[in-house]
């Protein structure tokens, strides 16, 4: 029995050594959009598309932040009122009117949701169609109604895309992290996302890893047309990563190097932001739980086998180290205890940069095992909801795609 315990904790330790040294430095927080002075010879036109469903409370701040961008080029906003019942459209128009920027805002009334589309993507599709029909912009800024943008955000996104010939630039905006449950679980949400999609690999055109964060995506209109538009991902619940994968996986002659006979490898970039942030509040455990449970099983392609593997993997990687320390110390098997402690320390070391990024107490870095236990239960609940026909529930809609 002692040999089995030792073997298990050694495997856990080896996994953490491999993650820290071989997995794209996912634990680093250095992939940020630099806020520096930029000068563009050409100022591309941009249209923002905002799907909004019952967002009247947040729009006075979030829409205002877009209307007040310091971008000197052509910038127009298309807000799609997705069957709201709280006066979202009226609040949007009042916000623009208060800033004397009525001409910059177009409010689009969403049509009925057709079969085979998720609500958000259908709203975005209508906004994109309206924007490209009226203005034919060079770029589309796809953003959520709960995002408060830094005044220089759009200028920096466009500069990044232009200077590095990127097809897609996305920011994992700073999520709200104020109360107990947010501090306990939100930094880990971003940490786990980075572990699934190491940002350095996402940003490497030679690697197939692709991801984006739906709260803030700047995409070339030509690149979106090249993949066939949002219609190709119309059923995706994890639409941001599906869009990034579609963009990065297409091979075509480069639109930026027309004399080159070589195929263009689409380039995308994903990073963190400390200045553009989400105002979405998570007042208790329940909304965070629902956020994760909504798509966790989708991430596993609705596979029971992958679910079992994930549950076992979460236990082995996150729960075994502290258990090894406790069991080893209680039985005076100091080799097991020391190995478990070493794995726990490596785990905490990996989580520490994200804890610092979110300005949380440093001791939270040692709480990753209990945090991971919560996420393991959320993942299991996600599968149960799917099997019960409640999967993908969001804002009054349930998607079983």
UniProtKB/TrEMBL annotation:
Keyword Transmembrane helix: yes
The Glycosyltransferase 2-like domain, residue ranges: 48-227
Keyword check for Transmembrane helix: yes
Pfam families the record matches: Glycos_transf_2 (PF00535)
Transmembrane segments: 7-27, 305-327, 334-355, 361-380
GO MF, one annotated term: transferase activity
SUPFAM superfamilies per UniProt: Nucleotide-diphospho-sugar transferases
Domain of life from the UniProt record: Bacteria
Keywords noted in UniProt: Membrane, Transferase, Transmembrane, Transmembrane helix
PANTHER family tied to this protein: GLYCOSYLTRANSFERASE, SLR1566 PROTEIN
Protein name (Swiss-Prot/TrEMBL): Glycosyl transferase family 2
UniProt organism field: Fischerella thermalis CCMEE 5268
